[in-house]
Design brief:
Layout lengths: L1 E7 L10 H18 L4 E7 L14 E3 L22 H11 L4 E5 L4 E2 L3 H10 L4 E4 L2 E3 L9 H6 L3 E2 L5 E5 L18 H12 L3 E4 L5 E4 L11 H22 L4 H8 L25
Parallel strand pairs: 1-2, 1-4, 2-3, 6-10, 7-11
Antiparallel strand pairs: 4-9, 5-11, 6-9, 7-8
Length: 284
């Protein structure tokens, strides 16, 4: 039986944050999905918090990893201090805590359909060792744990961002994550680039109803936090350049997808069954 370890980073927030509603939904849907998983995979749920925060209540299936000891604002000065964790620190705790075959990281506001882990297990069986699952964005009409069945039922809308990553544990030591922090842009692109380069069979699932997000408030876009955005952007450029120099250039469409923004960004043909490695020059 394959083993899967899934980690999230719960955070203490004030009453104005959308996470007040989203986090309990995430916890409960993860707990339910783990209970619904069949005998094709053994699923473990992990959570990591900061060392100086009160413990956030979690459903019984969750395992707490050793606490995080720093945030992005501890390694660099920003206009306004915000406790945004480094993605490398989060995944390091999972790597130390679990010997599972596959790791999953999702943002703490991403809820799961009941069949999520069954679907992930089947995708792994198809031979993918690194893949991204894009969420569906549902309305903010329903806001409580009791309303989760109604949230499940909403089809929602496609969202092009990245917030759910699945990869083989053995790939992780190769990853270059720099000082990329969560809670702003470019973290998804960073994980995506590492998975594209190091995975032997990568795919992005853009139109599957496996996960959902309540509304789309995008608090990270606030002007007061734009220096976190620029920090991650600078980090990502350095990381991508290093990957490219060490492992070789990608095909033009894929390079554009990982580097470009706006109307100049090209989109690979994700509707294809898979993207064979022959499409990547560094594997020829």
């Amino acid at each position: 039986m394959k083993t899967i370890a899934h980690i999230i980073h719960p955070v203490i927030v004030d009453e104005s944050s959308d996470l007040v509603i989203a986090q309990p939904i995430t916890f409960e849907t993860m707990n339910r999905a783990a209970g619904y998983s069949d005998d094709s995979a053994d699923v473990s749920l992990y959570a990591v918090q900061y060392h100086d925060e009160a413990r956030i209540p979690l459903p019984g299936r969750f395992i707490r990893t050793p606490d995080l000891r720093r945030c992005a604002a501890d390694i660099k000065t920003f206009k306004k201090r915000k406790k945004l964790a480094l993605i490398g620190d989060i995944l390091d705790t999972l790597y130390e805590a679990s010997r599972a075959d596959y790791f999953i990281y999702t943002n703490v506001d991403i809820a799961l359909q009941p069949y999520f882990y069954q679907a992930v297990s089947r995708i792994i069986d198809l031979g993918y060792d690194a893949f991204v699952i894009n969420r569906r964005t549902i309305s903010d009409t329903h806001t409580t744990v009791e309303e989760i069945p109604l949230m499940y039922a909403e089809v929602g809308e496609f969202h092009k961002g990245y917030d759910c990553f699945v990869f083989k544990r053995d790939l992780y030591p190769k990853f270059n994550l720099g000082d990329i922090c969560i809670g702003t842009a470019w973290i998804g692109r960073t994980l995506l680039a590492n998975m594209v380069y190091y995975g032997s069979r990568f795919k992005e699932f853009r139109n599957h109803h496996f996960t959902f997000h309540i509304g789309d408030p995008c608090p990270w876009r606030k002007e007061e936090y734009n220096d976190y955005f620029h920090h991650n952007r600078e980090q990502y450029v350095t990381i991508f350049n290093r990957l490219e120099s060490q492992l070789g250039p990608l095909e033009p469409v894929w390079r554009s997808y990982l580097v470009d923004t706006g109307t100049g960004r090209q989109i690979p043909r994700f509707e294809e069954e898979e993207v064979p490695k022959s499409h990547f020059r560094h594997f020829l």
